[in-house]
Design brief:
By secondary structure, the chain is of the alpha/beta class. It contains eight helices and five strands, in the order ααααβαβααβαββ. Strands 2-1-3-4-5 form a five-stranded parallel beta sheet, with helices on both faces. α8 links the parallel β3 and β4. The longest helix has 14 residues. It is elongated.
């Protein structure tokens, strides 16, 4: 596949010059901000110092209620939870953040990062077997899982629930998880 680079419109030069002056920043940075729709001092302030009130409601994402309900049940029943992430930077960062958050509420939590060379990318049978051997009943998968229908089906046979949190493009179908949180899954053309 051949890729073609397309230069983004630089925006109105006067706007970026004014912004550079107001923020006391380099013109190049002001151009980037204008390209992202940040054209005023107040917009820049919100961009660089966002407030919690500016966040989207997380419950607008499909399956969020199911994910929260399952996590709540696991915490209330003192179930063992496994935070499972990919070995790359966004996967390990997500695991560290999620693990540190949930460890405030339970000590029945662990994490699993697959061996890149032995298990490959994403959720592995070895990881699911590890969860079963150690009594985990809920796996929260981060940065992986959106295309692994067969692996989630395998986990279901072992009575291990999955919550998938991913950002990659899904395949033709979705795994049979308790919840699949992925902003790109709305692009699916499925017939149910």
């Amino acid at each position: 596949m051949e890729k073609r680079w397309v230069q983004v419109d630089q925006g109105e030069k006067g706007t970026s010059e004014k912004l550079a002056h107001e923020l006391n920043i380099d013109q190049c940075l002001a151009n980037i901000l204008v390209q992202r729709g940040v054209t005023t001092f107040d917009e820049a302030r919100h961009f660089f110092r966002p407030q919690l009130a500016q966040l989207h409601d997380p419950f607008l994402m499909k399956d969020m209620e199911q994910a929260i309900a399952r996590i709540t049940t696991a915490l209330q029943n003192n179930e063992q939870i496994l935070v499972y992430g990919d070995y790359d930077v966004d996967g390990t960062t997500a695991v560290a953040l999620t693990y540190s958050f949930f460890s405030q509420f339970t000590d029945q939590i662990a994490y699993y990062i697959p061996d890149r060379h032995k298990e490959g990318y994403g959720i592995s049978t070895a990881g699911i077997d590890f969860a079963k051997e150690h009594g985990f009943t809920l796996i929260i998968a981060l940065d992986c899982g959106i295309k692994l229908i067969d692996k989630i089906a395998y986990a279901n046979t072992l009575d291990i629930d999955f919550i998938i949190c991913d950002h990659h493009l899904p395949g033709e179908g979705l795994p049979e998880a308790v919840a699949v949180l992925d902003p790109k899954k709305s692009r699916l053309r499925l017939s149910f």
